[in-house]
Design a protein that fits this description.
There is one protein chain. The protein is built from no helices and eleven strands. By secondary structure, the protein is mainly β. The radius of gyration is 13 Å and the shape is globular.
Length: 123
């Protein structure tokens, strides 16, 4: 079992920045893929980014490419999502997820989920 706990959400003005954290526990995640998804009210859960923990290779959705950066800290078993140049359309609940195996983009492919953290971008 893998437990995931997100933190770092909040309210920010458009153009601002936030950094989300996802701390993993319960099992080593060295061979896992860690991902961020988001879900806005009335919309389906959307892929944001995924990273192979071992290689550091990441895939980003087109909507966040160039603005968001995922990274990981092996010592802390934590993955981060640095979000810059935030837009109102980035407003959503952001979820951290994990799966064993390759990078996948559908939420149904991920077994482990955090509780989510709200990000609100105001104009």
């Amino acid at each position: 079992q893998v437990q995931l706990v997100e933190s770092g959400g909040g309210l920010v003005q458009a153009g601002g920045s936030l950094r989300l954290s996802c701390a993993a526990s319960g099992r080593t995640v060295s061979y896992y893929v860690m991902a961020w998804f988001r879900q806005a009210p009335g919309k389906e859960r959307e892929f944001v980014v995924a990273i192979n923990w071992s290689s550091g290779t990441a895939d980003y959705s087109d909507s966040v490419k160039g603005r968001f950066t995922i990274s990981r800290d092996n010592a802390k078993n934590t993955v981060y999502l640095q979000m810059n140049s935030l837009k109102r359309e980035d407003t959503a609940v952001y979820y951290c997820a994990a799966r064993y195996g390759g990078r996948m983009y559908g939420p149904q492919e991920y077994r482990y989920w955090g509780q989510g953290t709200q990000v609100t971008v105001s104009s």
